[in-house]
């Protein structure tokens, strides 16, 4: 039995539609790099200087629309303190995407980010999309410690995509999540294509193209 | 009275109707769905509406009662179309789109949540209060009309006849009115020229159509539909409603679907923000042509205005009065009239046909200017016959609906029951058309009411009554239409009754259009001498309609009716895709915010627990207060970390570890640290540390980490916090090497001593032979009992005091030279506890099994003792000698060999941890006996010689 769904009030033309695809996203990184601030900037659009340390794992949800598709992120914002490190797998297991955050004013946090990336690539499947976010770029002029080129080189080598962000100003925050959503759709698309040999002319790649991690999980 | 109050009238005083909506069931019968609460338990009531709309409680006949439990499911294909499932029942309903529908879903979900929560407390609702309704049900109806989706006329009649609350009207109605099956009979009499690939087809329908349907040669609008992005299969649309939180996802569960409904709702609400208004002119004309062939020209009707209208809506009645018209779908008249219409459309405009539909003599034609044609979507049509027996097509209504840009418009042409006095029949015909007409291209089918704009034209046959015919003619002659229209049956009802509720009509400033002698402008001179009447009307409903003219066209004289026409300017909403996307994103953002706001939220008064010095068998307890600061009930639970088997370390007791907190309330969770004989060994040996992190999880929400921290004792022992090491729980090996009290031994040394095999590495000569033969702590207790308690009554049979045992522990651990504090009984208990806490019992675990196997042979038992490590053997002999001495004083201390043997056996011969848990009770009892027997040999044997 088939039938025409009632015309939606939006009239059909130009209205993005369809049910949302649910995605588990985890934020990882050293303490104080701004994981919670990034999540809150993305979800609520505001910023607090006195954002308290996350002791546990905060849960938020946000929908983004990419190429007419809805991606609903279930965001797990984890505790950065070292003593909770051993609990992180509870949150990154089963995640489709991860954002590893470092603070561009702290080389230590960048080193920590390396170990997070290493751990993620070792413990999760190859289909998990990892973004590397250098936060606090608003402080770049005065106290930058991690060079953008260095981070980009590292990201390139490890098949991540890299963005410098500022939760304080909102710079690149939407872009970060949007790009992740795009990657997820593209990932899906690739998987579908290889499994079912569906050839579609849809341009799902968007304007930007990032190196993709396929097999490296050393 | 609103629907809720009407339902309330049917309920007991302690029951409350929370929300009630009306709808239509699978057999197109009007129903009311109500959620009723009684003391927190909620149930879904389904009533059959005996009267539409119901006005009092007795208009509702109860059909079904379902407790809202986990078995009840509400599936929504769309917010207009839901199916309720409970047990074997699966009922489908069409429901209107309005705020109370939303309330209904919210309440239903809430009710389900509440049920699952109370069930989670172990207090599932019993719903016994529904029994009285179930009894009522079995009396009210013999069969269940909802049992399946297929209409069963006989079943329906049965219910109506047996229903005690039926009225005569509803009974006769049920006999005369066609139900959903009427389509079959209709099809043999009528034709519609639609060609609809998306139509839902019943087998009978398809068959009829294939034989008689006229093939459409013109390009149909349906072809447009097939390209539409909105076309989806039912499977894709079928989604389950709500229940995202706390309920495991079902197989067909797709997250975010309740959300889609909400998105649609809010988008509709904010439509004006992303649409622009464009004006179109609509010409509506209606003419009862009395079966005549068209005259040479009808330009005088269709093209009298200077500017061409954008849309033509042209309705005919009595197009074909021949008997063949009733039997054959083809009508020559249709063709000639349509040709004439197309010839006489405004010469300045170029038009395309949108739809043509005809039910016997009732025909509706819709044309639109070519330039707008591509903006027309989802054109559909349907018809309802209300003629002879309620099924014949001599009377009835036909309808065409379209969507132009974002505005839906419905056109209805009707021919209602004739004769001066049949006003009620006319009213009923109207209701039948209004409520039965369905555009079936849609799922669920659309009704007339669900359109932004409706134009309803036709020969409605309403007459002028309560006025003498001569007075009427006088008023007409004087053009006093304003006075005359007060006597018009439709005008009298319009806006005052349910007939054409919501519809308006322009002021009539022309003379009645009926009834004339054919070919003249003279009133009917036949012997019936009909009273003049405004039979032919144009009504409209909706926002943004500006009426322009309303007139009749007396020049056309072929019929006994004069044609009527009316012009309107209507507002069409044109979507701006950019703004639409923005609003869509806005709505999504708002929903995200709502969703985040409604996540469970709690506040904890502690994230970290600091404990001071924690000592063996000394409990410390602190409270964690969890306050629900959110807006929804919270279920919290301590969850296991990763692959751990328990959510906390064994020395940490947490309660309650799972509970529900309603908003504004709090729960106090007790956190108790208690080191007992079972876990002290691991702490002494460093296998376990006194630190832990608990994960407090909120169902459907976030996690909290709660840390247990212990003050640091000294710098060396950073890892171990402030567990105060005790000789209790130290191994025999460590104890015999330990000089001085344990509190003075550096923790690092302690750890070395606890390393397996530490004793064998000790160079006895180098230490100057400073190994104790038995641990000094045991010696102190044994010596104390021997000196002060060997004559003590009930020795080893009375319990000691916890406080005194703790003091004895401190005395031993600090090496206080004083006498051991407390009573002999406390010292005795401390001794037993000390032995029980040994990580490796007096007879080490590896020898346990062989001991049990040779209990019948004293010699073999002795040989085993020879094999155990020396320090354990020394301790064993020391203890046996001590107990033998005590037994020799049995006349004072009342010790019996048997009870002493079983007590000592239990302590010195412990089953390895790997074995102890899975032994059956019977097996354990026999082991107890064997252990006692083993010790018994040594306690009693004449030749015991250490």
What does this structure look like?
Chain A has 218 residues and is an alpha/beta fold. Chain A has six helices and seven strands, in the order ββαββαβαβααβα. Chain A has one domain: P-loop containing nucleotide triphosphate hydrolases (Rossmann fold, 3-Layer(aba) Sandwich), CATH 3.40.50. The longest helix of chain A has 24 residues, at 173-196. The N and C termini of chain A lie far apart (50 Å). The relative contact order of chain A is 0.16. Chain B has four domains: 3-176, Roll (PH-domain like); 267-575, Deoxyribonuclease I, Chain A; 602-720, Immunoglobulins (Immunoglobulin-like, Sandwich); 840-946, Orthogonal Bundle (Phosphatidylinositol 3-kinase, Chain A). Helix content of chain B is 34%, strand content 23%. Chain B contains 33 helices and 32 strands. In chain B, α10 (257-269) crosses α19 (577-597). Chain B is rod-shaped and about 145 Å long. Chain B starts with a helix and ends in a 6-residue tail after the last helix. At the A-B interface, β1 and β3 of A face β9, α10, β18, α19 and β31 of B. β1 of chain A pairs antiparallel with β9 (231-233) of chain B, so a sheet runs across the interface.
């Amino acid at each position: 039995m088939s039938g025409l769904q009632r015309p939606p009030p939006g009239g059909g033309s130009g209205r993005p539609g369809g049910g949302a695809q649910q995605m588990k996203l985890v934020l990882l990184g050293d303490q104080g790099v701004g994981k919670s601030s990034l999540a809150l900037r993305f979800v609520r659009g505001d910023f607090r200087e006195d954002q308290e340390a996350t002791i546990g794992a905060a849960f938020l949800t946000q929908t983004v629309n990419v190429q007419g598709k809805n991606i609903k992120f279930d965001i797990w914002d984890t505790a950065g303190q070292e003593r909770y490190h051993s609990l992180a797998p509870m949150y990154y297991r089963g995640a489709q995407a991860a954002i590893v955050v470092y603070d561009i004013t702290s080389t230590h946090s960048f080193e920590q980010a390396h170990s997070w990336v290493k751990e993620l690539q070792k413990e999760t499947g190859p289909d998990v999309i990892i973004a590397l976010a250098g936060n606090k770029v608003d402080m770049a002029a005065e106290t930058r410690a991690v060079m953008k080129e260095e981070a980009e080189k590292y990201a390139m080598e490890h098949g991540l995509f890299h963005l410098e962000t500022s939760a304080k100003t909102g710079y690149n925050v939407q872009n970060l999540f949007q790009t992740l959503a795009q990657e997820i759709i593209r990932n899906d698309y690739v998987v579908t294509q290889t499994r079912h040999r569906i050839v579609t002319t849809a341009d799902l790649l968007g304007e930007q193209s990032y190196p993709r991690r396929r097999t490296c999980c050393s | 009275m609103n629907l809720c109050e009407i339902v309330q009238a049917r309920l007991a005083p302690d029951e409350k109707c929370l929300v009630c909506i009306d709808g239509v069931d699978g057999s197109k019968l009007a129903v009311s769905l109500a959620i009723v609460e009684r003391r927190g338990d909620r149930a879904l009531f389904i009533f059959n509406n005996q009267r539409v709309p119901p006005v009092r409680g007795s208009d509702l006949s109860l059909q079904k009662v379902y407790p809202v439990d986990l078995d009840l499911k509400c599936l929504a294909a769309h917010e207009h179309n839901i199916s309720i499932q409970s047990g074997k029942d699966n009922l489908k309903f069409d429901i209107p789109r309005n705020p109370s529908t939303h309330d209904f879903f919210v309440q239903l979900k809430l009710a389900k949540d509440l049920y699952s929560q109370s069930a989670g407390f172990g207090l599932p609702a019993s719903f016994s209060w529904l029994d009285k309704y179930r009894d009522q049900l079995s009396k009210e109806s013999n069969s269940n009309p909802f049992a399946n989706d297929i209409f069963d006329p006989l079943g329906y009649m049965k219910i109506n006849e047996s229903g005690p609350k039926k009225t005569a009207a509803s009974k006769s109605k049920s006999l005369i009115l066609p139900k959903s099956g009427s389509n079959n009979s209709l099809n043999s009499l009528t034709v519609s020229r639609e060609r609809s690939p998306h139509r839902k087809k019943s087998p009978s329908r398809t068959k009829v159509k294939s034989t008689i349907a006229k093939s459409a040669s013109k390009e149909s609008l349906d072809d447009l539909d097939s390209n539409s992005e909105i076309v989806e299969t039912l499977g894709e649309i079928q989604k389950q409603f709500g229940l995202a939180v706390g309920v495991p996802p079902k197989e067909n569960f797709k997250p975010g679907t309740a959300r889609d409904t909400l998105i649609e709702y809010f988008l509709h609400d904010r439509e004006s923000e992303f649409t622009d208004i464009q004006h179109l002119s609509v010409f509506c004309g209606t003419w009862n042509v009395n079966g005549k062939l068209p005259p040479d020209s009808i330009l005088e009707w269709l093209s009298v205005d200077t500017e061409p209208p954008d849309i033509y809506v042209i309705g005919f009645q009595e197009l074909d009065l021949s008997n063949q018209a009733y039997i054959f779908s083809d009508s020559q008249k249709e063709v000639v009239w349509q040709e004439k219409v197309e010839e006489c459309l405004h010469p300045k405009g170029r038009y395309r046909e949108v739809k043509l539909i005809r039910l016997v003599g009732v025909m509706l034609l819709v044309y639109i200017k070519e330039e707008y044609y591509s903006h027309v979507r989802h054109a559909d049509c349907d018809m309802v016959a209300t003629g002879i027996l309620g099924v014949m097509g001599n009377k009835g209504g036909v309808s065409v609906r379209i969507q132009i840009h974002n505005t839906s418009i419905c056109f209805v042409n009707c021919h209602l029951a004739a004769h001066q006095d049949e006003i009620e029949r006319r009213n009923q015909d109207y209701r039948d058309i209004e409520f039965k007409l369905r555009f079936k291209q849609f799922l669920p089918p659309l009704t007339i009411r669900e359109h932004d704009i409706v134009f309803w034209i036709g020969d409605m046959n309403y007459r002028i009554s309560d006025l003498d015919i001569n007075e009427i003619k006088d008023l007409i002659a004087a053009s006093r239409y304003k006075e005359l229209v007060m006597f018009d049956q439709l005008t009298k009802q319009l806006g005052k009754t349910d007939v054409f509720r919501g519809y308006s009509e322009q002021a009539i400033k022309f003379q009645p259009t009926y009834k004339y002698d054919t070919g003249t402008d003279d009133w009917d001179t036949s012997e019936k001498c009909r009273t003049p009447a405004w039979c032919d009307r144009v009504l409209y409903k909706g926002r943004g309609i500006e009426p322009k003219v309303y007139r009749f066209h007396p020049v056309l004289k072929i019929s006994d009716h004069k044609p009527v026409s009316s012009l309107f300017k209507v507002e069409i909403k044109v979507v701006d895709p950019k703004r639409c996307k923005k609003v869509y994103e806005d709505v999504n953002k708002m929903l995200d915010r709502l969703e985040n706001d409604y996540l469970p939220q709690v506040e904890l008064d502690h994230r970290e627990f600091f404990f001071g010095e924690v000592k063996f068998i000394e409990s410390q307890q602190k409270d964690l207060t969890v306050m629900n600061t959110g807006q929804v009930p919270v279920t919290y639970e301590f969850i296991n970390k990763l692959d751990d088997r328990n959510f906390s370390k064994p020395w940490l007791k947490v309660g309650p570890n799972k509970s529900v907190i309603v908003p504004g309330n709090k729960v106090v969770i007790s956190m108790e640290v208690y080191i007992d004989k079972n876990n002290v060994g691991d702490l002494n040996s460093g296998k376990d540390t006194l630190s832990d992190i608990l994960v407090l999880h909120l169902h459907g929400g976030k996690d909290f980490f709660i840390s247990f921290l212990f003050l640091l004792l000294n710098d060396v022992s950073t890892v171990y916090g402030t567990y105060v090491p005790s000789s209790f729980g130290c191994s025999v090996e460590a104890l015999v090497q330990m000089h001085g009290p344990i509190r003075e031994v550096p923790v690092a040394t302690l750890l070395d001593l606890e390393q397996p095999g530490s004793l064998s590495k000790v160079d006895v000569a180098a230490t100057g032979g400073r190994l104790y033969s038995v641990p000094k702590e045991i010696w102190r207790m044994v010596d104390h009992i021997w000196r002060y308690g060997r004559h003590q009554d009930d020795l080893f049979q009375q319990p000691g005091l916890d406080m005194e045992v703790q003091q004895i522990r401190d005395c031993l651990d600090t090496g206080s030279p004083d006498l051991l504090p407390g009573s002999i009984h406390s010292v005795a208990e401390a001794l037993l506890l000390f032995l029980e806490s040994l990580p490796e019992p007096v007879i080490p675990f590896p020898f346990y099994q062989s001991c049990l196997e040779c209990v019948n042979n004293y010699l073999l038992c002795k040989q085993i003792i020879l094999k155990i490590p020396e320090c354990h053997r020394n301790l064993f002999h020391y203890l046996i000698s001590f107990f033998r001495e005590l037994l020799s004083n049995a006349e004072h201390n009342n010790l019996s060999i048997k009870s002493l043997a079983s007590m000592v056996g239990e302590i010195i011969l412990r089953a390895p941890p790997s074995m102890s848990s899975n032994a059956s009770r019977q097996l354990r009892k026999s082991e107890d006996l064997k252990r006692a027997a083993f010790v018994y040999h040594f306690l009693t044997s004449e030749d015991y010689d250490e």
